[in-house]
Amino acid sequence: MVRVLPLEGELWDLMERRWAARTIEQEDGTTKMAAFIFHRSGVPVIDFRKSWNEAFRAVKVPRRIFHDLRRTAVRNMVRAGVPQSVAMSISGHKTVSMFMRYNITNGADKVEALKKTAAHLAAQPTDKLEGKILEMPDRAEAVSE
User: Fold this and answer.
1) Exposed e or buried b for every residue in 33-52, given b needs 16+ CB within 10 A?
2) Between the chain's N and C termini, which has fewer beta carbons within 10 Å?
3) Pairing relationship of beta strands 23-25 and 31-33 according to DSSP bridges
4) What gap in Å lies between CA 68 and CA 33, rounded to an integer?
5) Residue 22: exposed, middle, or buried by beta-carbon count in 10 A (0-12, 13-18, 19+)?
6) Is 73 exposed, middle or buried (0-12, 13-18, 19+ CB in 10 A)?
7) What value does the mean pLDDT take over residues 17-23?
């Protein structure tokens, strides 16, 4: 299965640089075109874990698992309002249940939800309901009557 993913911005710029880096000068002075976008002297990059870990050590930040980027991308797309079907096609999730497992919520998400709900309720007109709201007696009062 081939998945087409449009690129733009920094990611597009990276891919253009990598495309240009496909030209490799050989020891005899001739050049050849590497078959891969990500390569080391024409040899495809198979495992990048060592380089990945070295990069974290170099910038002195806690190590992350590469796959965490997929979860971060899903969260960012959902928070940005990207439709779920579009986000799923980008992330490659085939089922909604698996997609939702990647859409992790945290305390800040819950606080934001409460703020939005409070703002929504505060914006509701109250004059439409005047005279139409009846207080319900509590159960003890209703039984004693």
Assistant:
1) ebeeeeeeeeeeeeeeeeee
2) N
3) antiparallel
4) 33
5) middle
6) middle
7) 91
| Helical packing angle, 68-79 and 84-91, nearest 10° | 160
**pLDDT by residue (tens digit) across 69-87?**
899 999 999 999 999 999 9
And the tokens for 14?
């990276």
In the block, which residue shows the tokens 């505060």?
122
Measuring CA to CA, which residue among 78, 80, 116, 82 is closest to residue 100?
Answer: 78
Three-state SS for 32? strand
CA separation (Å) from 145 to 116, 133, 135, 140? Answer: 41, 21, 16, 9
Backbone angles phi, psi at 111, to 5 degrees: -60, -45
User: Are 18 and 37 spatial neighbours (Cβ–Cβ below 8 Å)?
Assistant: yes
Q: Model pTM? A: 0.62
Burial class of 137 by CB neighbour count within 10 A (0 to 12, 13 to 18, 19+): exposed
